[in-house]
Amino acid sequence: MRFLAALFGRRARLRWLHLIIGGALLMPYFLVGTVLVGMAGGGEQLFSSLPAQFVAFGLALPMAAVTGFFALVRPLSVAAARALCGVPPAVLADGPARTRQARVRTAGWYTLHLALGGIISGATLALPPFAVAVIALPFFAGLRETWLLDGPEALREPWALALAPFAGLAMLLALALAAAVAGEVLARRAPVLLGPTPEDRLAAAERRAADLAVRNRLARELHDSVGHALSAVTLQAGAARRVLDRDPEFVREALTAIEETTRRTVGELDSVLGLLRQDGEPDEEGTAHGPGLDALGGLLAHCGVPVAYEREGDAEDPGVVDPVVAREAYRIVQEGLSNALRHGGGDAASPVRLLIAVRERERERERERERELMIVMENPLGERPAVARPGGGRGLRGIAERAVLLGGRAEAGPYDGVWRLTARLPLTTAEATGTADRAEGRR
């Protein structure tokens, strides 16, 4: 039963159909080859000459191979192989063949498909009628007289006629076996010839990396803006609830801070969601969205923790700090404040200290000096360890990612009894590109 299923089961029938399609695709090339053979031989007995047909078949295959170099042949072949050959879809490539290697492989597959399909299709058309006639020989006298009129005398013997039905069945079985073997050959070669090339895998990896970069950027924006706002609102609401009966003025200030924080966060959320409403085109890192350093005043005034803010240089001057750098700096400060709210021990006696300065530093292995934006934030360490949140712990990693993407660096950790966050960023995106290029050159 398993043998018969392998020859006549659903998968075998689909593969047989796939081979017949290959034979149909071969016909135009075969006809051109027939014309060429006829022109060379004078056209005498062209269709009755078996050698001439084989020569035409041999001429058709190179023409089919040339067609296989067209880019759109691969997606059509892949679609047919997935539907009819029983090949797992994941092992086949998607899209047109763009590279030379992909086109060579596609041409090889196309030629193999048409060659095997032509042979199996020809046998499918010619062999079954002949086999049925052989099976019917013992039962129809007129058929015997017509077929065996010029045949050898041995075929007229009773034992030969008795074996004729078995010979006919053997012919049909051999045809099914040949179709099954040809279909298996195509199915085994499909992942090699229609599968992704190294260039295809590299392009797919680049697309996945680009998608992940966009997702990570959106995750950072939402984490820093919404996460900070929720932390601030939660702490302010909790403090207001505890002193609701004793200090109404503090409650009014807390409610005002909650209102300002949520209003500002709604605007930031609209800016972040705007990245998703660009008709499928991902926003580039070089485009500034969201608040910059000039919006720090509103952030610090309603962040829920006292902040001692110091400035050095012209860090808030839009003409000095690139808007993209200013945006990332704002997010770094915002995340630092969120960490201070959740994990720190800040109060009026020991506020959070924030320093933003524009300073010069000497380039590594060079004598030139360049200016950079430095952010230093310190807050007291909490008396109790912070409670780990499910899915939390991404804030510091997000800060490091922001700094690295700009060509800077960031670090955070305990230092002299406080928690210190330090970030150094180039002032402009051009300097960021130069810093990244120099780092790549050193590697």
UniProtKB/TrEMBL annotation:
Record keywords, A-Z: ATP-binding, Kinase, Membrane, Nucleotide-binding, Phosphoprotein, Transferase, Transmembrane, Transmembrane helix, Two-component regulatory system
Reactions it catalyzes: ATP + protein L-histidine = ADP + protein N-phospho-L-histidine
Gene Ontology CC: one annotated term: membrane
Pfam families assigned: HisKA_3 (PF07730)
Domain Signal transduction histidine kinase subgroup 3 dimerisation and phosphoacceptor: 215-279
GO MF entry, a single one: ATP binding
InterPro entries with a match to the protein in the record: HATPase_C_sf, Sensor_HK_TwoCompSys, Sig_transdc_His_kin_sub3_dim/P
Keyword Secreted: no
EC numbers: 2.7.13.3
Regions crossing the membrane: 16-40, 52-73, 107-140, 160-182
Protein name: histidine kinase
UniProt source species: Streptomyces parvus
